[in-house]
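Here is a typical sample entry:
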Amino acid sequence: MISPGSGPRRGLGRVARRVAVTVVVLAVAVTAASFGYNLATDGQASRPAGLTMVKAGGFDTRYRSWGSSGSPVVLIPGAFETADTFALLGAVLGTDHRVFAIDLTGTGYSQPSPPFSASHLAAQVLAFLHAKGLTGQNAPVLVGHSSGAAVAGLAALTPGAVTGVIFLDGDALPLPGASVAGYLLIDPYRTSILRLALSSSWLVRTIYNSQCGPFCARLTAAGVETWRRPLQQPGFAAALGYTLHHGIPAMTTAQLAQLKDSPLPKRVIYGAGDRQLSPAAAARAASRIGAPPPVAIPGHHLTMISSPQQLAAAIRAVIAASHG
């Protein structure tokens, strides 16, 4: 006779206990290794010399500028991007316009200033405009790239703040699944994964190539550092954690409707090969904000790098409309 509690059930119970113990041991080991790695790599990355900063509205904002005459344009980066992302476009557009590009707080060299919400980032943009005298008759056209489109769109809702707004490779909509990712990727693991990813030049180049496409030159070692070093600055890990919990900067349906009703000149420009914003999605984005049909230019998601001349021409058309 097989007594109750013996046989297959008892065997399964032993296996389950062993699996549970193994999982706990592995979790403890991985957690300890993560804490150890984070401690060993806890040094702060250096900052480039000669950064240009402006303090206003509680923000300490790093910016770059090109050109000394013409109407102003302010370029707003997307996720993982800084003012340096616009270097090629700024040089081209700066031949006949005053061009500014900023680092949004939490990414790059601007002083971290939580929370990293879309409205907070829009407040940073507005503070920058006031600090640089880009108001009234001198108000700029805003160009928001990727998730920066939502920041530009929100700033444009402030009456009289801007003379036009451009969504570049972005539609200002939220991405699904952000809150789930935030609960799964917790510290210390999130910090370890981020630092491991940034330590790989191969990974930086691979992501860059996938986003920029065949029209972009290969990243040099200095180019890799231009992308990597801003993400190693204080505040980026916190900004990344905020994004994982709350999502990328986005506009609500009501805010998009408000922008649509605005008389401001608006335009959507996108890369013809962009996998993140298809032609159909770009058309919907244009309709959503009351813009004319979108403009496609050569490139993938980083059109300011792949096609600065074509992008500058498309931006100039919007500027002309804003002063017409």
Remarks:
- The longest strand covers residues 59-66.
- The two ends are 96 Å apart (CA to CA).
